[in-house]
Specification:
- This protein is α/β, with parallel strands linked by helices.
- Helix content is about 40%, strand content about 20%.
- The strands form three sheets. A seven-stranded mixed sheet has the order 5-2-1-6-7-11-10, sandwiched between helices. The protein has a two-stranded antiparallel sheet with strand order 3-4.
- β3 and β4 form a beta hairpin.
- The protein starts with a helix and ends with a helix.
Length: about 190
Amino acid sequence: MAKKIFIAFFIIIFDLIFVLQLSALQNQKILMIIASQNFRDEELLKPKEIFEKHGFKVVIASSSLSVSSGMLGAKVKPDILINNLDLKEYKAVVFVGGVGAKEYFNNPVALKIARDAMKQNKVVAAICIAPRILSEAGILKGKKATVWKSEAEALKSKGAIYTGADVEIDGNIVTASGPHAAENFGNTIIKMLK
C-alpha cells in the first residue's frame, strides 16, 4: 500500500514539474515586427513556425492593426502596435523583411525598439532588407552583418561589416540575407535563446 502511494505521489510530482516547465516556456515570448503591407511571407511564417514548435509564444507587431498582406499573399492581423510594446515581455525582437520594411528605416519608434532591445540584451534579429533598420538604429556599427544585396552599401555606410553570408551572428545580433535563409534564421535564433 505504501509503495502504491509513493508511486502515485511520484507520478503527480513528475507531472506537476513537467506542466510547470512547459508553462514557463510558453510564457516566453518572441516579438516579430512586420510592415503594415508587403512583408515577405516566408520570412515571417517559417521562423514563426520554428519558434512556436519550440514552445515560444509569438506576438506580431506592426505600425497598424489592420490586416497586413505579404508579398506572396499571406494575410496577418497584428496583435499589437509597435508604439504600445513593453520590451521586457520578450526574449527576442525580430524585424521581418519584404519591401514594406522600408517604412521602418527612419521610423523613430522602430529605431528605438532596436536600440532598447540591444540595451536590454535581447536577441535582436532582422532578415532581408530589415537589417537596414538595425543599421539606421546605430546598433550594427563595428558588427558583422548580412542583408539583401540592395542594402549592403547602406549597412557599410553606417559602419557594419558586411559579410554577404546567408545568416550572420555577432554577439546577440542575428541578420539574414533573404527568404532563402528564413529557416536557418529561425533555427539560429532558437539556438541563441537556449
